[in-house]
Amino acid sequence: MIKVQGITKKFKDFMAVDNVSFQVNEGDVLGLLGENGAGKTTILRMLATMLRPTSGTAEINGYDLLKQPDKVRGETGILFGGEVGVYDRLTARENIRYFAELNNMKKEKVDKRIDEISVMLGMSEYIDKRVGKFSRGMKQKVSIARSIVHNPNIMLFDEPTSGLDVTSSRIIHNFIRSCRDEGKIIIFSSHTMSEVEELCDRILIIHKGKVAAMGTTAELKSHFNNENLEDVFMELVGDKNEL
Ligand SMILES: Nc1ncnc2c1ncn2[C@@H]1O[C@H](COP(=O)(O)OP(=O)(O)OP(=O)(O)O)[C@@H](O)[C@H]1O
Question: Which ipTM value was assigned to this complex?
């Protein structure tokens, strides 16, 4: 379970995330929706222990975010910004293996796990090729494979399908569903309403660092008396003066 309590991040005088609280249970997929700059990545980076909250904290599968960051890291698989940190001169397998070693996986298990993931994400054709000439989508898959190689219980994915074609997006969607079925927790940010609507058990809408709304798609639609999630979103975050 993830229990976020009043998490806040200030960059100098700018309040990027303001007193955000929410809970996610095992087997739940939570979607983070918000305009550019709303604070989604900052929330994910704090939960991934990459950024220290200014105040507030979180409990992640029983571990305290601030007091037990190493334990929290062991529980989480993180994906940020697509190809960042993919080493061009290494093959896809070597990139993934490097992360497996960083996560203290036993050497004899690593290759079998990489083969499994490679089939699951449709990477078999290029798993042993150098990533330098890969397309953005192929690199994105290497990043995803790398983030899940140690089979974490929690996945924090920042725009996981950004830049992917329809087939690849579908592979990621199916992967998220299978993680949910295994009882894992997934939090992901997205700008694609249909993706969020299709995959998420609950949606957290962030606006200017604050929680603007939270609930199931059905709850949000019924609360705002509107069948279209994009309209609900616009009602919450849109500039009412805009045409
Ligand atoms: N290291 C930093 N220093 C100063 N300001 C920052 C820093 N990181 C993020 N911000 C600011 O915090 C706000 C929230 O940024 P964040 O990246 O969390 O937004 P986001 O919701 O993920 O946006 P997007 O959808 O564009 O990815 C933005 O105004 C951003 O400029």
Answer: 0.97
